[in-house]
Amino acid sequence: MFELAALFLIVGAVVVGFVLLGLILKVLFHVALIPLVLIGAVIKTVLVAVACVVGLVLAVVLGPVLLFAAAVFLLPALAVGGLAWAGLHALA
Predict the structure, then answer these.
(1) From CA 82, how far away is CA 89, in angstroms rounded?
(2) Partner of 23 at 20 to 30 A CA spacing, among 4, 46, 74, 80?
(3) What sign has the CA pseudo-torsion 58, 63, 66, 72?
(4) Alpha-carbon distances of 56 from 34, 42, 46, rounded to whole Å
């Protein structure tokens, strides 16, 4: 009877030891990985800033070009479409 209780006590102590060891390793790894997380955050911030600048440059450079292309190509298509629509409704 006492041997079984001693066995359970030893197994319980081993489980508690493994839990504490896991907790200590988790804390150590989190503390050790903080610089890597900070480096990742800095890289993400730089990439977002570069993407914003590139997007603004593209909008400033390509904006007038796309507006001109729309004026040259899309406005005549809209006019022809409007005439076709008006002709179909005039016949109906």
Answers:
(1) 11
(2) 4
(3) negative
(4) 33, 21, 15
